[in-house]
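Budget justification note: compute hours in this period were largely spent on complex prediction jobs such as the one shown. Inputs:
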Amino acid sequence: MHVIPLLFYGCAAGAYLAHFSRRDAAIGRLATGLLAAAILAHTFIIGMQTVQAGHAPLVGTTAAVSAFVWLLGLAYLYIELTTDERAMGVLVTALIAALYVIPAVDPTVSPRPAILQSPLFTIHVLAMLFAYASFALAFVVGVTYVALFTEIKAKHLGFFYARLPSLQVLDVMNGRVVTIGWVLLTIGIAAGGIWAAQLPPSSDPRAQAMGIQDPKIMVALVSWGVYTFALVARRAIGWNGRRAALLSALAFVIILLNFVPVGYFLTKSHNF
Amino acid sequence: VDAEPAVNAMTRLFAVGLSHRTAPVELRELVDFSRGGSAMALTSLAERGIGRELVVLSTCNRAEIYAVAGPDGPDIVGRFFADYHQLPLARLSEHLYVRRGPEAAHHLFRVAAGLDSLVVGEPQILGQVKAAYATASDNGYTSAITNRLFHSAFTVGKRVRSETGLAEGAVSVSYAAIALARKIFGALQGLHVVIIGAGGMAKLTGLHLKGQEVRQITITGRTLSSAERLAQALDGHAVPWSEMPGAVARADIVITATGSPEPVLTRSGLIDVLRPRRQRPLFIIDIAVPRDVEPNVGDLEQVFLYNIDDLQGIVKENLGRRSVELERAEAIVQEEVAKFTSWLQARDIIPTVVALREQFEAIRQAELARLEPKLSGLPPEARTRVEEITRLLIEKLLLAPTEQLKSVRDEAMVAAYADAVRQLFKLSEDASAPGRKPANVATLRRE
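Corresponding output:
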């Protein structure tokens, strides 16, 4: 069943790439349509899973990746429709299509353990995933900023120059999405912390592993530190433009590492 | 009759030069005839025995010499380029181009129309061509061919400006820079622009930016009064030269267009000035030649430095959109080149035509003298009538051949016709040799 959204996401990524290289408005509209169709199909799957399991499919890394992809697609679509700016779609949809391979390969919905039946858990997961989606957008904006910056600086105006919005617009976008992401990340970490603190003593090894020494939690805190620095540096020492762009790109790499490899292989606290 | 070699006007006219198309800015900075006045360059070149038809066109994007001389003319001028600027000829020669006859006219007409400019269609160049001609003319270095050549060039410039849309929209270096500014800053409305220098280029750039409704324009120059004049024209405000660093610190866009031989913005000077700005981007447009900004200023992280050459990239982008207007402008150039070429070719046949007429006139006079005893008995009115009839007869006989000769377009044909006429009518070698100054050109030129 996951094959249908994967197909749409893949086609959307291809269409965005074609639009980016050829700048054909019709292909651009097709790309947006394909992405919307992919999100719709994906929504249907999440809805079905919710009905089947009796709860939102947020348990386990695979479900989280699926939800993350869905949120990112929605957030991007919102930005595209409000700004009429399609250039970033090529990177966003590539990332989405690549990540969606994970839920497509393993579509099983994990049952929800008793300890996760808390509104704090739901807030934690949703806030974290929304934060990650924001940071993904910041990453894409940052990468395009650096590409355009490099072109203008090197005086070889060409590919990106013709396709991307101005550096100023990209920088403002980057600042906004990092701020939104940071707020959500803070809420997510706080909700997770409170939830972990009020857990009744139990024999569940995962609950016992909840602590700063767990790689997943540690890296999440590190990334919170990096984004906090990015925001403070932007306001206090003028780290905007290229430095902010590079920082948000680097920070998202940390997020992505935490999300997938750490989430699957290293963490002892988050392997639900 | 002078002793110039028998080369026809078609190839005697030539242009030697270098421009932004053939030479990098580093070299163009060194080749500048306007330094010390182009009159001095004219005098200096004339001393090399190259004739008296010389025009020196020297702008920040080109240095060209138009001349009428013998076959070795281009070599003499090429060596002059090197000697005058104390450069080895070997360094220059690969950047120098030579255009002869109609090609020289074609080149000049394109230059005057702004078609050969860095920013195609920019209007300043026509004024610069006019000034170059005026200097040559005032110093007595123009004559029939150069006069005609440059007046035709002015016609081309005016026609391209009025008959095509080339001069509207993207017309100058500054306009090209605005597109770049948009890519860096997005909207230009909130920006602070600082213009360093108060000359013509600075004014033009300022006018373009004023049209973009930037927030504030500050002008500074070494002479405050001219900065103030420009400020008035741009609704900006002038600050003294000493406050230039402070103005740059507050600027988003800095345009430098001074005539200073030394850089006015150096890397070491800017580092301190820019520190309080943190990472706020600064776009520096250096439209001066020699450059006003040290090239390594562009290495500073928040600085985008573009000089006049760099703007070519944007120009090319604009070119695509204006290809239709370009075609029309090129057609005007071709049309005027054709007119000029036929005029030039007609000049080659002129000595032959003159010689032919002189021959006929001599025959007429000889016949009248021979018949003098018989004619002397006629009343004065009848004698006048005889004069008139014989003169008209010659005019009528020569009308068709003259027209035909003057309409010959092909260079080889001109020579062939001249040769045929000379042999058929046994004209003296000397009288019909092309290059000989015709005795009564004025009566033959109908334009």
